[in-house]
Specification:
By secondary structure, the protein is α+β, with helices and mostly antiparallel strands. It has 14 helices and 25 strands. Helix 2 runs antiparallel to helix 4, helix 2 runs parallel beside helix 5 and helix 6 packs antiparallel against helix 8. The chain is elongated and about 105 Å long.
Amino acid sequence: MSDTLLDSRNLAFELYEVLDAEGLTQRPRFADHNRETFDAAINTARTIADKFFAPHNRKSDENEPKYVDGAAELIPEVKPAVDAFLEAGFLNATRTFEQGGMQMPNLLSQACFAHFQSANAATSSYAMLTMGAANLIENFGSEEQKERFLQPMIDGRFFGTMALTEPHAGSSLSDIRTKAEPAEDGSYRLKGNKIYISGGDHPLSENIVHMVLAKLPDAPPGVKGISLFIVPKFLVNDDGTVGKRNDVALAGLFHKMGWRGTTSTALNFGEKGECVGYLVGKPHNGLSYMFQMMNEARIGVGMGAVMLGYAGYLYSLEYARDRPQGRLPDGKDPASPQVSIIQHTDIKRLLLTQKAYVEDAIVGTELDGLPVLSAAAPFKACDRKGVCAEESSFTVVPAGELKVKNIADLYLYNNRLMAVKVTGAELEQWLECSASQFFQITDTADRQELVDFTGFPTYNFDVIDGVTYQIDVTEPARYNGDCVKVSDGTRIVDLQFEGTAIDPDQTFLIASNDYRAHGGKFAGTGGDHVVIESPDENRQVVGNYIQANSPVTPTADNNWSFAPILGYTSNLEIVFRVPNTNRAKNFVADAVAGAGGSFLATLLDDSGNEAIYELNLQP
């Protein structure tokens, strides 16, 4: 099966982690469903879209519908695809079981339909328009109209359209001229012209039900005089069978730049004075009714655009993985094999940009308004193997204005910007894991180490900015160095956001990088929590910010500190070790100056290779 429709893993994340689709099953209407039934419907949609819709996508684009003897002619592959869609029940996915539907949440119906739009936007549009027209009749039509027109649409026998635009008026519906004259039998006779009517003629169904805007003889001027009418291509007999041809003529087809496989028609109503129509709802209220279908169509077209972009990304990704070209910058041997172009940095950037655009459109706006924090390891003392002798083990960013050239010192690795969604409880656990990197201080006069930087995994010590907190090192560590829980200790105290204690159920966004977001070691991280994946590296994001907002002069906000040690009777001697280098000494000198003399002494170990500094945590 093709991987160029939708990424099933990403879709599952959006449905079940971001939008909580399973939570909908708690509602009585959807109680018969669960994740298994949802997934089964999605898999069926994927299979049909891959087998029947995708294969003729290009052909339908290259071979537009033709105007032949007063009718629209399509390529032969369209009808089997539409029939397979109907037989699987997707036309009525949201309707009740009693109506012959799946009684599925609209969220899941849209997820299923997205596969068809990704596979072939043009062919899927016939079903989209029919669903909208059927919903319009269901909400505003009479019981007789529902029996005569809605039920055959639900059954897939009749398809539907929306007929609004006129040649002289364009999108200015207040200026439409199509007229509707009342007839003795209670119906109406329409006369006028409509253009750009998608699905206005085709051989895919027994009948086409046009939802037409027109004006009655006594209509007031402007949009307040518009009424809505059902105008079928073929009249329907009392027994439900299709009768004679109505006075609706296909005047021609329009050529389009996109969705070329969908008929775009010009329709003439009442050329012979015999175009029969049926008023929907109250006179002069037609535009307010029609807005329901218009808005459904807008959502459908928007989703179609997203799926076209997403399919483009997946095709690009597939091509980039398979297409060999060139070698990496350090590949100097011309005899070495070429690499796939996805390994080239700029190709990755382009792919990630595509992915970001379409995923941003899919995710929705449920993240709007959430507090945004940031997480990072604030220093790189020692390398990842614990070697600290090199001067480069320490980050130096001069005080004052931040320059683009400083960014390489701020970010050692080329990680991308990510964001995760966490609860207040997960935020506290994240900080507890960081706080666990310190040794526990006990009530004894012996010299005790707070931290040994020679073995300190700085990449697992995160500071989270945007909140304030203290670390109580007299408590036992809750986690070990790998963030595995080893006790019930509580080191994070007085955790607040904007001066108020954080609620465990409160939700936050934390901006970080892909190493942290996808690592899953800290609470609140891992693929299930990732909600934003930027195509840009952190360094690029900061660089862009500096260039756009120069001058940038950041200052330390001192949002965390060690909690003062209270109640201990001993005169504590707390020390920590750092490499005995000039850069380290300068760091400590700056810290002593900024800490108000909390550092009491500078000591050297016996070998002279480490500097040991004493820290006063007692008030």
